[in-house]
Amino acid sequence: MTDAEKLFETLKKIQEPKGYYFNEDKERTLELLEALLVNKERYGYMGCPCRLQTGDREQDKDIICPCVYREPDVEEYQTCYCNLYVTPDWNEGKVPHEYVPERRPPEKFSF
């Protein structure tokens, strides 16, 4: 079992009871989890794999996975920005797979 697969199993047990499910596209999900592990090795924390990290934990705290934007994204679009966490309806194709706009404020992008 790869590290990404181990992370999948661990997070699944933690997140599903909270109503957050992994994207059923297992290949995509494992790629995102692998990217989280790369960020953890690189920066010391699992920064969002779909956003640039600064390397400053305090500045990046809003995008440490699960990011603070996950809840409003999933509530509105049934998926987070990365499509890592989704609802059962999203996985089952019962809701449109729309683009999730970036909620992170522009001032957070200044490096």
- Share of helix among residues? 40-55%
Biggest sheet, open or closed, and with what strands and sense? 2 strands, antiparallel
Secondary structure tally: strands: 2
Structural class: mainly alpha
SSE ordering: HEHHHEH
User: How many DSSP H or I helices?
Assistant: 5
Describe the strand arrangement of the main beta sheet, using strand numbers: 1-2
Strand content: under 5%
Uncertain runs with pLDDT below 50, 5 residues or more? none
Give the helices and strands, then pairings.
Layout: H1 3-15, E1 21-22, H2 26-43, H3 57-60, H4 70-77, E2 85-86, H5 88-91
Antiparallel strand pairs: 1-2
Tell me what you see in this structure:
The protein contains five helices and two strands. With 111 residues, it is mostly helical. A two-stranded antiparallel sheet has the order 1-2. The model has no long low-confidence stretch (mean pLDDT 96).
From the structure above, extract its key features.
mainly alpha, 2 strands, globular, 111 residues
In short:
The protein is mostly helical and about 110 residues long.
